[in-house]
Design brief:
245 residues, mainly alpha, Alpha-Beta Plaits, 3 domains, two-stranded antiparallel sheet, globular, binds iron/sulfur cluster
Amino acid sequence: MKVGALIKRNKLLILVALAYLAIFIMSPNKAIMSVENSVYYLIEMFQVLPVIFLLTVVIEALVPKDLIIRGFGEESGLKGNFFALLFGSLSAGPIYAAFPISKTLLGKGASVSNIVIILSAWAVIKVPMLANEAKFLGANFMAVRWVLTVIAIFIMAYLTGLFVKKEDMRSAESGQETRELEINEGYCIGCGLCVKLLPEYYEMKEQKAVVKKMPEGKKAKQAVRESAERCPAKAIIFDMEEKAS
Ligand code: SF4
């Protein structure tokens, strides 16, 4: 790999190394303290992250997409909000562990609002945290803070769901325009059902389905939506809503 490309890929790491170097030159004692802190967090991350990645793999491979959609999806309503609150509250581990799990849930159909609830509950109202809070600051303080925090979390979730769309998140991640109709290659099991149903819109390439043509018109979109519902792996992502131009 070329040196330029290597620097570009690791620019954040290089910046951190330069910052450490500058602190070492200006104040060696503080530099030693910051190295010790960094090592502490690195060890914590190495202990936590393997478990988290294992959990994301389990969700990805074993939890049916339908279940996530019913539990945390757009249509799950208050029940979904409650599950999300429970999931975040009963979680363990630091907040950065919540991000890969949230991404997996989002990819499997969880709504943006419920992801906000999971992340917020994980960060500020986890059960072990509440127990400690009650011990040090009193049960009254903990209970009032919990009620007000939950109200704030629900407001944040509603507003975030209103302003941030999944499509924006997917396009920000890939750096590309999100298409109305997509196939999640990781989920597709290559059964060919979609191609059999709608050969004008899907085709097989290297044992995976790919989009051949975007549907136009209500009838075509309805047919594509039905094919997405019939896909056994729920690999077809189809957004029927008209996008504002
Ligand atoms: S129906 Fe679903 S799993 Fe089967 S080939 Fe099409 S996209 Fe893949």
